[in-house]
């Protein structure tokens, strides 16, 4: 029936609600019937253990009970899904974000993409500088300025498949490889960088972890050259309740989060340090921060999203939940690593808290360029379809597995069994 749903979708561009959904292996995506916890059921009534979890959007699990209760109360009992008025939930969420990530001033959006866009504008306002510095193959949603990579000859270039950008991103952005502090300093020395925008570990080109001293070096270089350090933990919140920022003692000037904190309800947020917030206030002048100033949207901070964030952060993505999620990811990583070693495959696996991903190269890549070079789309499709046909859903176009609060030992062990079977067939055993 999933194929029939796909074929009937004559009025959907690409036959899917969002063109990204064409990335699923097999020629068409499964059509969703229902989802609970870490399982999804398609219209053929087949149920899968879900390790994709909406590419982090459902890291709290599908429809967690506290979130469902909160949004139901907001919609059915209290009413007022979107009224362009604040609720008490918003301040509760902002205070919680301060507790977790340290920054004291917060504003809400409907996605991390929007949070990044708006925060970039404030970074330019605060510094009086125009450019952004990013890392090749970083993930910051569909922000125009970030769709840039280091090309084959070391030159900056628009990322492949960047659709018709209004401005070539090499005009707005400087780009270097991850883990290369010398390159960071070289680009900052031009004196025109408003902010270094980074994930604390690369996550959308495989997981590429920072080398020892890299984050300390970035913080020092940002301070030295008068650039703001802007950390996007939309994916790396998997490291723990406060992401890598809390776990590793990072000190951002601006912070961005999205996807997971609303339990599946669209939301995002950006935080500012007291110093940056004060500088922004001083420099607002005649431009203002409302209406069409580029830092707002009619639905941002709405009552429904605020209720969802409060319930998810307060009752679902708790310290104890993260402890179990990370324990499950550690078990998953250990099993996959042992299977790879036993099969003598030149693959590697990296873990970041509650998420793990294997890559078709060994040792693991140290930057985005190396990880991109290790891509093997046919092998990806083989692994995805092999696991899918045996009741396991992995993240499309790469091999990320994410744990949610209800992921169990039995789920991990089933994946290990299926993964071992896939590898055995691949190597001819």
Report on this structure:
The protein has 429 residues and is α/β, with parallel strands linked by helices. It has 3 domains: 1-13 and 32-50, no CATH class; 65-316, Aspartate Aminotransferase, domain 2, CATH 3.40.640; 318-349 and 364-382 and 407-429, no CATH class. Helices cover 38% and strands 16% of the residues. The protein contains 14 helices and 16 strands. The protein has helices at residues 2-8, 65-78, 88-101, 112-127, 169-172, 181-188, 214-224, 243-247, 274-283, 303-316, 319-343, 368-373, 377-388, 409-427, and strands spanning 32-36, 39-42, 47-50, 105-109, 131-135, 148-150, 156-158, 173-176, 193-198, 228-232, 254-258, 268-272, 348-352, 355-359, 392-393, 400-402. Helix 3 (88-101) packs across helix 10, helix 4 (112-127) crosses helix 9 (274-283) and helix 11 packs parallel to helix 14. The longest helix is centred in the C-terminal third of the chain and has 25 residues, at 319-343. It is globular and about 65 Å long.
